Amino acid sequence: MIEYKQWHENLQDFIYFNSECAVSFCQCDKNHKLSLFELLRLVTDAAVEDFNQRLMGYEKLTENNVGILLSRQSFRLHKMPVVDQKICIKTWEEKPEPLQFVRAYEIFDKETGKKLVSGISNWLLVDLQKRRLMPIKNFTMRKAPEKTSSHDCIPLTKILVPDNLEKLGERKIMYSDIDGNGHMNNARYGAFVIDALPEEFQNISFTDFKIYYNKEAVQGQMLEIFGSIDSEHRKIFILGKQGNVNCFESELYY
């Protein structure tokens, strides 16, 4: 019988959270590779569980009138995990920015130790009563990390919206898209991005993915999806708008 474990380790002034699992059939696309939606869900779940096990879960945060919301992510897809593959997800906090937590990820093959995915993300601290952003220094539920490390992925620099956007379709936010925060779960945007791609790009292996979450989308809203393909730089831009507001911006590299 295979055992899947979770554990924390303190190494080089970082607190690493490790979570083992197997990639299930229902998490994969028709090519038996982990879907982008499920990748985003797995790393977010690992980040949440890290805080849960350090006594900073959703209920404890709510008691302290704070929420933590994902702002942006970048991933290098060395080799996307496949069905039945045993993997280990490693995540850790780094020195925060004034208004954003910084969290890194790595996913490895459990048996060989080969790196499959590298990533970095930013998270916002929110005053739940005032619905305002708070400086990260105000979060005193744990001692903030003081170090950073190098990241094998595209930096979280601003995504530039191209001029030659083409409307690719529309997507209504449904009940099953919503999570306990009352708005669309961040991982669902991964499905929106892939579904919006022209068919000839849906089955290729992407090397990098970056996404910015700009505005919460709620049930009943209709997102207009726009895109642009930059063949010279092998990059695809996908944008989701609600009215005149950009809800998300993303880039895929191939």
How is this fold's topology laid out?
Elements: E1 6-11, E2 14-22, H1 36-53, H2 58-63, E3 66-77, E4 86-97, E5 100-109, E6 115-127, E7 132-133, E8 166-172, H3 188-196, H4 199-202, E9 208-213, E10 222-230, E11 235-242, E12 245-253
Antiparallel strand pairs: 1-2, 2-4, 3-6, 3-9, 4-5, 5-6, 6-7, 8-10, 9-12, 10-11, 11-12
Helix pairs in contact: 1-3
Keywords:
254 residues, mainly beta, twelve-stranded antiparallel β-sheet
Give structural notes.
With 254 residues, the chain is mainly beta. It contains four helices and twelve strands; from the N terminus they run ββααββββββααββββ. Strands 1, 2, 3, 4, 5, 6, 7, 8, 9, 10, 11 and 12 form a twelve-stranded antiparallel beta sheet that branches. It is globular and about 45 Å long. The termini are far apart. The model has no long low-confidence stretch (mean pLDDT 96).
Inertia-based shape: globular
Q: Summarize the helix and strand pattern as letters.
A: EEHHEEEEEEHHEEEE
User: Could you tell me the number of beta strands?
Assistant: 12
Helical/strand content category:
mainly beta
Tally the helices.
4
The overall pLDDT average reads: 96
Unreliable residue stretches: none
The radius of gyration is 18 Å
Strand content: 35-45%
Percent of residues in helices comes to: 10-25%
Question: What characterizes the major β-sheet?
Answer: 12 strands, antiparallel
C-alpha end-to-end distance: 38 Å
